[in-house]
Amino acid sequence: MRQIDLHKLADDARFNRFHGLVLFWCALIIVFDGYDLSVVGIALPSIMKKMGVDATNAGFMVSSALFGMMFGAIFMGTIADRIGRRWAIAICVGLFSVFTACAGLAEDAIAFSAMRFLAGLGIGGVMPNVVAQMTEYSPKKIRATLVTLMFSGYAVGGMIAAILGKGLIESYGWQSVFFAAGLPVLLIPFILKSVPESMPFLLAQGRTEELKKIASRLDPSYTPQATDRLAVPAKDRADSAPIKHLFFDGRGFSTVMFWIAFFMCLFMVFALSSWLTKLMASAGYSLGSALTFVLVLNAGAMVGAIAGGWLADRFHIKYVLAGMYALAAVSLTLLGYKMPTPVLFILIGLAGASTIGTQIVANAYTGQYYPMAVRATGLGWALGVGRSGAILAPIVIGVLVGMNLPLHQNFIAIAIPAVIGMVAVLLIQHDRSASVLKAEAAPALGKVAAGVSGTAGS
């Protein structure tokens, strides 16, 4: 009888068509997710004018989706470890597609906010699941690169929203960009058919044959045999209480540091995505120019995410992430000052790379930090707690905009969380991560195996 370590099989596999399929579906889902999230910031000036709301109330309208995202990340991230990641992802796609489209039918701020809250459940819930999925199935040597490449779809979604926003809002009104968000619901049957299920979940369900098929696609050199015993390390096995494992093996302090880092980064991300268009318009730029800044912000995010993932696979991911927070503090502070337009574009690109890009790398780090069976739970809770920063950001910056403060003071308020986030990342105890503990356990397991083999031969 052979015992197949699924975790090691995934770690050592070479990138192949199966990995490309997982990357394609996860990235495509994140593109739609990014569009749904960015579309409000694109349409916000038009919505404020149409519904007659001030900056403070507009901040609350934007935060309604973020409030939903907080619950969605925690609930759908945790429930995925119980019902399976594939169904959790499909449910989330349905939620954010249908209710973002419904927001286009709203005629007042209350109805709009209610639809955005429901959409937020799906927007927030899908993120921890696709990151956990990509982390689980990626080869170890390129794991951070693949996760950040997949999550750069978020920036692509934001760029699509900015490009479509320019034409659709002027020609058909702000509602049109929301109606376009309903199209992904058509992909749900294909998602259920094409996206593989989580390996620890299949193992816990006793679905051995399905698991063997996935294992053979994961590593084509593996040929399933009837007597094979598939397994994952004890720390990676799914159980009925995944939340408690976030605080096991000395991970409690670092779990809190992740939560603080996510809070600060998501504050910056949603302050920019919600108010950059309005801030730039108030600084004298036309709506078209302000939307171009959003496009540059998301292009910078995509470059920053991919470059950050590449660096994280070659250097220590913790220090790469801390450096990205430091870059955010500098670039955001400088954005508040007058400068030539080409320099301003560069700074906005750097701001995108070091805020949205930083969050994507932080997602990758969190996915690697926790054991396989609780990755969705760990990332879901980090994103869920972090969403409180996302909720506060549009409100806080909305109040500041309403006070007519100088432009540089608004950007300093967005930059301060970057410094706090950097400190939190530096305090994370990397030696408690699942990858390090697994590496430390490997020699001991080898000695045990050798002892068993020697006993059998005597």
Short account of what is shown:
The protein is mostly helical. The chain is built from 18 helices and two strands.
Largest sheet: 2 strands, parallel
Order of helices and strands: EHHHHHHHHHHHEHHHHHHH
The N- and C-terminal alpha carbons lie at a distance of: 20 Å
Q: What is the multimeric organization of the chains shown?
A: single chain
- Estimate the helix proportion, in percent: over 70%
| DSSP strand count | 2
The outline comes out as: globular
Average pLDDT figure: 79
Strand order of the largest sheet: 1-2
Would you mind describing this structure in some detail?
78% of the residues lie in helices and 1% in strands. It is an all-alpha fold and 458 residues long. The protein is globular and about 70 Å long.
Annotation keywords:
458 residues, single chain, 78% helix, disordered C terminus, two-stranded parallel sheet, mainly alpha
